[in-house]
Amino acid sequence: MWQAIALSFGLAMDATAVSAARGLGRHTARDLVLLPLLFGGFQSGMSALGWLAGAWAGHYIARYDHWVAFGLLAIIGGRMIYGAIRGGDDEEPEPGSLALYLGLAIATSIDAAAAGITLPLVPVAPWIALVLIGTITAACSAAGYLVGRAVGHKLGSSLEILGGVVLIGIGINMLIQAA
User: Fold this and answer.
1) Residue pair 113/119 in contact by the 8 Å Cβ criterion
2) Whole-angstrom distance, CA of residue 91 vs CA of residue 112
3) What's the half-sphere exposure (Cβ side, CA atoms, 13 Å) at 79?
4) CA distance readout (Å), 4 to 49, 104, 112, 116
5) Fewer beta carbons within 10 Å, N or C terminal of the chain?
6) In this predicted structure, what is the pLDDT of residue 41?
7) What is the pTM assigned to this prediction?
8) DSSP label at 95?
9) What are φ and ψ of residue 90, in 5° steps?
10) Domain map of the chain by residue range?
């Protein structure tokens, strides 16, 4: 059981960091609900796909996952930086679009598909591991978002630039780790 919990926390870290970065900038209560639900659902779903695809898809997933994740995170991070530099701090906060949230969920869960291939090696039923992955990711994402939001309120909305840099940094880290 501990292996499944450790795997779940490991997979949740990217989603947690992205949630915290999202909380630094403009935010609404809707973000606090949608981000954890999408991140937890996608982490669990992609792990299930990896588990079902097995060894056949593992090679293909591992070959391109880091590039896809980097591209999505770089685009989204770049848009956050551009939006913060462009200004508009006096405007009402805009919730993120569903397309943005889906892009973030996909980018942070691609590695879960590769990890899903290893689920038969974890000494619990795979469905228990999938539930743990989704639940822990959702909880960590909500906590990360709240921490980012608290820091953002104290230090100002210009921290959206930092959030964009963090997203790009996560993408670069994925490329480095894959090399």
Assistant:
1) no
2) 37
3) 12
4) 17, 24, 13, 11
5) C
6) 96
7) 0.72
8) P
9) -80, -10
10) 45-52+61-178
Which sign does the torsion angle of CA 64, 161, 105, 95 carry?
negative
* Calpha distance 116→101 (Å, rounded): 22
C-beta of residue 27 within 8 angstroms of C-beta of residue 160: no
Q: Which residue's structure tokens are 């999505």?
A: 72
In this structure, what token pair is assigned to residue 124?
């619990």
Distances (CA, A) of 45 to 107, 110, 113, 116, 129: 13, 10, 8, 9, 11
Cα–Cα distance measured from residue 105 to residue 118, given in angstroms and rounded to the nearest whole number: 21
Cα 61-78-12 angle, rounded to 5 deg: 45
User: Could you tell me if 74 and 171 are in contact, meaning their C-beta atoms sit under 8 angstroms apart?
Assistant: yes
Helices (H), 87-125: 98-116
pLDDT tens by residue, the chain, 179 residues: 787 888 788 888 888 888 888 887 767 788 899 999 999 999 999 999 888 876 565 566 667 777 877 887 787 778 777 776 776 544 444 557 888 889 889 988 887 877 777 677 677 888 898 999 999 999 999 999 998 888 876 665 556 677 678 778 877 887 888 77
CA gap 79, 128 in Å, rounded: 37
